[in-house]
Structure formats: C-alpha cells, structure tokens
C-alpha cells in the first residue's frame, strides 16, 4: 500500500466477553481487513468494537448492557493500540461504559482526537427514507471527523437543552430560569450549525464528478416554523427565537427551535432527484460516494485517512464498482474493515488486505487469519 501514506489505524484489538467474542485477539498492519464467515458468526461484532473506539454509542447505538456477552454476563472489555496509545473501554453489568487512555480515566470525547472512524452499515440503507434523526447523526459523524471539538459542543448543547426541557415540563414561567440556559444553547447551537455547514462544504468539494459512484448535492435544512430567518443559525437570532418560543415549547413539552431540529437534504446531483426517491442501489451508491469523499477530504487535509467500517458493502456492488472501491481504498491507504459472507468477494484484494475468517461454535466466535 505504498500509495497510501499515513492513515488512522488500529494496531491491535483485544475483546473480552464482548457480544459473541469471549476472547479475541487480533493484530493489524494497516492494510484493509477483509472479514468473511457465515451469517451470525460475529463479523459485524468486530466492526462494532472498532466503532466504539470513537465517541458515542458505536455503529449499532447499543447500550453497554446489550454488549455484555451472554450467557456469562460478566463485564466486557475492548483494548486497542492506536499509534502509541493504549485505549481500554469496559463496562461491568449495571454500570456505564468507562474509557481509559494510557491507563488513565478519560472522557469518551477524547477518543475523537486519537482516531477518526467512519462507517457504512446495512441499517443506513434507509437513511434517506426514515426520520431526520439518522441523517443528523450521519452529518454529525462527518462533522466530528473534520472537527473533533464537535463532540464536546454537541454534549454541552444537549445538556443545556435537557435542563431547559425540564423547566418546560415543570411549567416554570419565570424568564430568569430560562435566560442563562438559552444563552448557552444559542452559543453552542450556532457553533454546531457552523461546524456542520463547514463539514458539508468540505464533503461536497471532495466528491468526484464522473467517478464510479454518483455525487450527491447536500443541504442543511431546518423546519420552517423555527422562527429563525436566514440559512445559518445566527447566535443572537437563535437566542431570540428560543425566548420567543417558550410558550409554544411549553405546550409541546420540548424545545422546538435549534440545531437538533435540522435535517440533511440529499439529491442525486446528475439526475436532480431527491435521494429518498432514488433506487435502493442508487441510495447505497450515494452513501459510498459520501464516505469516500469524507475519507479523501480528511486525507487531503491531515495526510491521514480515517478508519472505514464497510459492513456488507462489497456484496451489494457489481464487479466494476467493487473494483473501483478497492482501488480507492488502496489510493487512500485507509484501514478499511470489510465484511461479507463469501471469501470470493475479497479475492481481488489479494495480499493488499489482511483476510480473516470468523466462525461460530457453541455461541462463541473464533477469528483466524487466512490466506487470500
Ligand atoms: N450480547 C451478546 N452475547 C452473546 N452473543 C451475542 C450478543 N449479541 C449478539 N450476539 C450474537 O452475535 C451474533 C451476531 O454477530 P454479527 O452481527 O457480528 O454477525 P455477522 O457475522 O455480521 O452476521 P451476518 O452475516 O448475518 O450479518 C449472533 O449470533 C448473536 O446471537
């Protein structure tokens, strides 16, 4: 992978009592990792463990409790080597997940500065069809990859909003209780909006016209009734809109104005057709195009490609597009983790990838390196 240059990469991964993996230890060398094995063997579980090495609840948005391996139901642990850092995530039953970096307790958001991880998973096939929440989450992951401060900003905004929502539910009318919270929401909210726009601009610019995957035109939208005029969420305008919306918000029992109501509109650029109206295959191709553009932009800016988790992506591509995807991964030098049931899907990666086979026996996953 000499074309690749630098890349974010996981050097080693050790899982204990994590879903179907009772004890799995793997070492990687930066090449893409092609994982095959039968349905239910535990392939996606490996990708999920890698996704948890970035802030948030990972690619399945699972609670710590769900991940605990049955039947033994004792605490789970993920240990990973990232550059010269040791990351350890763990959770005991009934306890929240904890993060340690180089042996010291660390906030989860600190992971954003060690590793950028992007993913494409089958549930995202419905991204353009379902509610705005999934699209916002997608956009926030893109944004976080470019601007690691985004994680803290979103947490601070959400905390102020939870406090404000509590006042609304309790029927508090005294403006003094709202003012400080609304100032915080406006400051963080305007910054969230600005970072999302910044990320979208970078993403759009990094898409390649005429490539094997279609380009998407993207726009950040907000509900019309949010009371803020103009495309961007200006801090002062957001503060005024929050103050003006208290009565309406109290009736609704929640805050109706702010970046948590934003949506991402996508259009298949060459056809001028909204993404939600495109075929399933076209929608998937648009997402692949966006993930690759994201990786390309990061590599251009930081000389390091992010880790890519491509769950069941290869099987859905025709041979030409699959070859184009593999060639792009090679150019990026990205550590991509790919899954599929059949080893043939990854044959053309040959020695350019590490090939793993996952099997399941008595509810326990076993992973071994195999020849390409
Ligand atoms: N908490 C848990 N404890 C034990 N096993 C679990 C737990 N959560 C999930 N599993 C098991 O993990 C397996 C699913 O693993 P995974 O999703 O990684 O499969 P996969 O190899 O990607 O399969 P597919 O090809 O069907 O997508 C299932 O057999 C499921 O029963």
From TrEMBL:
SMART domains assigned: AAA
Gene Ontology, cellular component aspect: cytoplasm
Report keywords, A-Z: ATP-binding, Cytoplasm, DNA damage, DNA repair, DNA replication, DNA-binding, Nucleotide-binding, SOS response
- One Pfam family assigned to this protein is SMC_N
- Residues where ATP binds: 37-44
Asked if the keyword DNA repair belongs to this entry, the reply reads yes
Q: Output the GO biological process annotations, alphabetical, semicolon-separated.
A: DNA replication; DNA synthesis involved in DNA repair; double-strand break repair; SOS response
Question: Origin, by domain of life?
Answer: Bacteria
Q: Which residues form the AAA+ ATPase domain?
A: 29-360
Q: GO molecular function: any one?
A: single-stranded DNA binding
Q: Where in the cell is it found?
A: Cytoplasm
What's the stated role of this polypeptide? The RecF protein is involved in DNA metabolism; it is required for DNA replication and normal SOS inducibility. RecF binds preferentially to single-stranded, linear DNA. It also seems to bind ATP.
Q: Which HAMAP family match?
A: RecF (MF_00365)
Question: What family does the database annotate?
Answer: Belongs to the RecF family.
The name on file for this protein is: DNA replication and repair protein RecF
């Amino acid at each position: 992978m000499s074309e690749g240059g630098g890349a974010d990469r996981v050097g080693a991964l050790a899982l204990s009592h994590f879903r179907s993996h009772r004890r799995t230890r793997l070492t990687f060398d930066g090449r893409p990792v092609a994982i095959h094995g039968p349905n239910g063997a535990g392939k996606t579980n490996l990708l999920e463990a890698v996704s948890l090495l970035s802030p948030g609840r990972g690619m399945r948005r699972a609670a710590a409790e769900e991940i605990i391996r049955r039947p033994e139901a004792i605490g789970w642990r993920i240990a990973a080597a990232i550059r010269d850092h040791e990351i350890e995530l763990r959770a005991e039953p009934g306890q929240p997940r904890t993060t340690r970096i180089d042996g010291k307790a660390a906030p989860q958001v600190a992971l954003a500065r060690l590793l950028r991880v992007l993913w494409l998973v089958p549930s995202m096939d419905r991204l353009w069809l379902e509610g705005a929440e999934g699209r916002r989450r997608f956009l926030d992951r893109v944004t976080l990859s470019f601007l690691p401060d985004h994680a803290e900003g979103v947490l601070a905004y959400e905390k102020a909003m939870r406090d404000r929502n509590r006042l609304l539910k309790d029927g508090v009318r005294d403006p003094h209780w709202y003012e400080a919270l609304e100032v915080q929401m406006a400051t963080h909210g305007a910054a969230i909006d600005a970072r999302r726009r910044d990320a979208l601009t970078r993403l759009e610019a990094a898409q390649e016209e005429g490539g094997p995957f279609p380009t998407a035109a993207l726009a950040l939208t907000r509900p019309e009734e949010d009371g803020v005029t103009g495309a961007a969420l200006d801090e002062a305008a957001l503060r005024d809109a929050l103050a003006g919306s208290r009565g309406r918000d109290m009736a609704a029992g929640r805050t109706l104005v702010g970046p948590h109501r934003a949506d991402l509109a996508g259009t298949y650029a060459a056809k001028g057709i909204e993404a939600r109206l495109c075929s399933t295959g076209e929608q998937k191709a648009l997402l692949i195009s966006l993930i690759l553009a994201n990786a390309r932009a990061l590599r251009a800016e930081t000389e390091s490609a992010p880790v890519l988790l491509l769950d069941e992506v290869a099987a859905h591509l025709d041979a030409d597009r699959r070859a184009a995807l593999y060639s792009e991964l090679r150019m990026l030098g990205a550590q991509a983790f790919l899954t599929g049931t059949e080893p043939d899907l990854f044959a053309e990666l040959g020695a350019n990838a590490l090939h793993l086979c996952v099997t399941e026996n008595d509810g326990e996953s076993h992973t071994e390196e195999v020849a390409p």
